[in-house]
């Protein structure tokens, strides 16, 4: 509230100051004109100009320079009036002195008395003997009136002086209050400045800490990504070793750990590089599958980013590959399964991202989420035609259950392709051991137990196989 009053006071003061400055400028122009006329002896014009100048200072004290010039001009103008016996101009001067009493001093008062006496003498001369008494009475009345006017002029002068002093005292008091307000405002501003500087310092420090944390996070993420990339390349290289000996079969006792410690999966054994069988594939086919794997890796990373499941595509695909090999599947086909398992959830790329991050879904939204199994086919145009059915089965049927309780078609038993069954088990197992909620994470033995509790909904022979290799 005090600040609001101070602002209003400053605005009024600035307005008054501007007005005063404007009036002062005009007053000074009139003063210059009066002095110029006075210097060339034109006293009547000088008198008119000096009156105009003093009128500019009605609401403030008349400057000393103006009063000094006015005194000189009035004094000489009255002397000129006395010489010329110009009683009409004399009456105008007396009226002006009522408006500007501060001009009157002893010299002017004496001169006015002299002219008044002169006016009486003139009246006497003009009075005839026949009406002498009548004119004498009029002269006495005139003397009384002039005396009263002179007294009134002195009182007006005194009152004007008192008013001017009072105005000066008020201006002085207001100036003191204004100065005090400005001083207090300056102190408050200095205090606010210190507070702002402190706040800025705190914010800068906080931003520095946040920036440091961001840099650390980026370094850790880069190292983790580099580790995952190296692990994936190692997997591809190990899978490629299957090309060396067509008569060899997979040695399950020497399976590599395709999962890091954070996922708690796949045990501590390693793939035996020398034990990997060589598929009966041409060099062209091998190059084609390797190129397909690289493309699937990129798309899988995009899917994981969209769904917020870090490394899910790599973890599921590696587990599917191990299960396929453990079944004794042809190594070349196992590698195709490996690729298909990286992109089985490609349909999520066509789903609204807000739905994927939502905590609660209505029935319509749940239906939209489930539609990813059909929409995934649209993302598989890069797959060679001879492998495409495996990829389509992986994308559209990995949520089907053996007992027909799955979706989208509700097929059961042998109607469900092997790639879909393997992905179903691998995805469920990966989800159980790497849930977003820490308390929901299960160890591998508990995860297998959970899968067994699904009963006929999942392929229990694959669950047994999973239990044997982790």
Walk me through this protein's architecture.
The longest helix has 109 residues. This protein is an all-alpha fold and 470 residues long. It has 16 helices and no strands. The chain folds into two domains: 192 residues, no CATH class; 226 residues, Hypothetical protein af1432.
**pLDDT averaged over residues:** 79
Beta-strand percent range? under 5%
Shape: rod-shaped
- The CATH architecture of the largest domain can be given as Orthogonal Bundle
| Count of runs of 4 or more consecutive helical residues | 16
Query: Structural class, from secondary structure content?
Result: mainly alpha
Rg calculated over all Cα atoms: 55 Å
What's the main sheet like?
Answer: none
CATH fold-type name of the largest domain: Hypothetical protein af1432
Q: Ends: how far apart?
A: 75 Å
Low-confidence stretches are 12-20, 238-279
Secondary-structure element order, N to C? HHHHHHHHHHHHHHHH
Count of domains: 2
Helix content: 55-70%
CATH class of the largest domain: Mainly Alpha
- By DSSP, the count of extended strands is 0
The CATH H-level homologous superfamily of the largest domain = Hypothetical protein af1432
